[in-house]
Amino acid sequence: MAQFFKAKPNRSKQVSARMSLEITQLDHLGAGIAHHDGKIVFVPGALPGESVRGQLTEQKKRHARAKLQEIVRASQDRVTPKCAHYYQCGGCDLQHLAIDKQRSHKQDSLVSLMAKLGQAEAETIAPVLFGKEWDYRRRARLATFYDRNTKHTTLGFRAQASKQVINIEHCPVLAAPLSDLILPLSRVLNRLSSKKALGHVELIEASNGHFVVIRTTKSMSEKDTEKLREFSDSHKVNLIVQGNESDLTLICDDPHTLAIGSSELPYYELDNEIKLSFTPGNFVQVNAEINNAMVNQAVDWLSVETNERVLDLFCGVGNFSLPLAKKGAEVIGVEGVPEMVQQASINAKLNGVNNVSFFHTDLSADLSKASWLGKVDKLLLDPARAGAFESLQWLKKMKPKSIVYVSCDPASLARDSEYLLKHGYKLTKLGLIDMFPQTHHIEAMALFELS
């Protein structure tokens, strides 16, 4: 008899009946933790001490996830979210928790993850670096969605774990001048004949003004360009259009393409009168106040001396390299994005810093033939979420006395810390950097010294 395949039901995605759950703690991603039928249940939006009703949305062998349906007994630490879009937008996920509790939770999570995943315990826990809890983001990327039925383009942020674009009129974590641009910008975009060709929109607050960067997949007509020019003039912003070839065209009375090193590029300032220009789309820290404090702390922790050789890996446009060079050290900055390396070199010249050099290298590749690789006195690491594990395989060639590791992912920091401890380093200092208030994201700085 012929047999036919019959798909089994996906039990991991089956939705359960509502159930009562007691929340005991938060995980490092900000979700409440409960226990049910011998499993850990993660409940986003719930807080420790709360009794809630939820519905299982995903089940695995040892854990499950539940959607929060009702708060039966609320925590005294629960606050009303400030943002009207909070429960739809996927940008923030801790606005319902008081800010001081957010920071203490992040601090505890950082220390716990370092101990659990990296077997690393710091000799000193540094004070938390924190600043404004609202209006702190100096840049953001908004998505667009063109509805073919209504002929309307939605401008906003994506929903949590979804491609759906949520219409946003105001964002309280954005710098106020940027937030105030969202609604009028949405209106002018919907007046464009080429609105179906729009991609993302980037908002930037820089020391030399406010910038709006519009990504489009086809050339704009003169009529559309004129509408954007009027918007730029009336709102006193620098409006840039980025086409398919990644060219950046400044919309003004005399439109021209912005090149690396152009005086019209946005820049930000650090202490010691350091100015760092960057091209829209390239990485810079979104929180200006905390970035400046973070740079100062890194320079202080490394305690560089004149004529020391310092290596700055994942250097970007020179965020740490130039302040370190200002202390008199010979600094080598290495970055994987060639345009950022070029901009970093220009920034060094513009700031009159001659004791720094920059190199383009894939830091996850074989570095054995890299001309810059060799003995250094100090090492600074500022990698992406994946961490710096591949780069640390060349530790024997570098032999730094001190390492400052700036991390945006405590899990990869813990993994790399374990490697450093095994190679003769001790974790001297560890500190939380609250770069992203109202979210679960944890930035940290660690100081390792050769035993």
TrEMBL record:
Signal peptide: none annotated. Residues 12-70 form the TRAM domain. The active site is at 408, 408 (nucleophile). This is 23S rRNA (uracil(1939)-C(5))-methyltransferase RlmD. The keyword rRNA-binding does not apply. Its EC number is 2.1.1.190. GO terms for biological process: rRNA base methylation. PANTHER family: 23S RRNA (URACIL(1939)-C(5))-METHYLTRANSFERASE RLMD, RNA M5U METHYLTRANSFERASE. HAMAP family: 23SrRNA_methyltr_RlmD. Keywords: 4Fe-4S, Iron, Iron-sulfur, Metal-binding, Methyltransferase, rRNA processing, S-adenosyl-L-methionine, Transferase. [4Fe-4S] cluster binds at residues 83, 89, 92, 171. The keyword Isomerase does not apply. It catalyses: uridine(1939) in 23S rRNA + S-adenosyl-L-methionine = 5-methyluridine(1939) in 23S rRNA + S-adenosyl-L-homocysteine + H(+). GO terms for molecular function: 4 iron, 4 sulfur cluster binding; iron ion binding; RNA binding; rRNA (uridine-C5-)-methyltransferase activity.
